[in-house]
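Repro case for the chain-ordering regression, as requested:
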Amino acid sequence: MSETADGLLRALADPLRARIIELLAGEQLCTCHLVELTGARQTNLSNHLRVLREAGLVEPQPAGRYTFYRLRPEALTSLADHYAALADRARSAAQLRRPCA
Amino acid sequence: MSETADGLLRALADPLRARIIELLAGEQLCTCHLVELTGARQTNLSNHLRVLREAGLVEPQPAGRYTFYRLRPEALTSLADHYAALADRARSAAQLRRPCA
DNA sequence: GCGTTTAATCAGGATGTGCTGATGTCAGAA
DNA sequence: TTCTGACATCAGCACATCCTGATTAAACGC
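-- result from build under test --
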């Protein structure tokens, strides 16, 4: 798998981070919004946002003393494309079976 | 996120399991093939295959004393669809920003 | 200036996950 | 039946990940 897709997967494979992504898919939100929407502590959220940031899934948008986060749809699209292509490949090769020695 | 997509993600978010999925996208393979293709121990592979099985990503196909595994493309497709839809939603709502109190 | 608020970073403890060797089970060959 | 090979399961250890409280930095209002 492409190492970028691997990073995206790791970042998304956490319940709280997945929830953050879903929330950000509807609108841009600042950390204080996410605190009240998820019920998680500010420190915890900040850690998860860093993971999402480093994976390229979200982008911070500083606004005064607030920091809004926006979702990067390209990241999700590349992930979707990758697995759609893999599924196609699997469908073509469904019957193939390597013989056992 | 749908809890099924969450399970798929967790299962895929491991380097060795991702590699197994890629290999199985090309052809059906038995455990002994996967052992030599990945270099992992049989015990280790069996554990990972169980995770993939429980997530609905692969399906065992017993053949005598061998066990072939086949990839279930529907699982990958549902994942791809989920994130493609989320990306679309994010693109539509890209400008929205919830005001801070 | 000073105090408050937002949010990032750090160090710790708890929990989860992956890898291992040993063991159990089942199918086929001798 | 007995033996061998393929595969699953189990218990233990090592490591990674998540959550937390405390601290720090920066932006705003007074």
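Ordering looks correct now. Residues 73-92 of chain B form the longest helix (20 residues).
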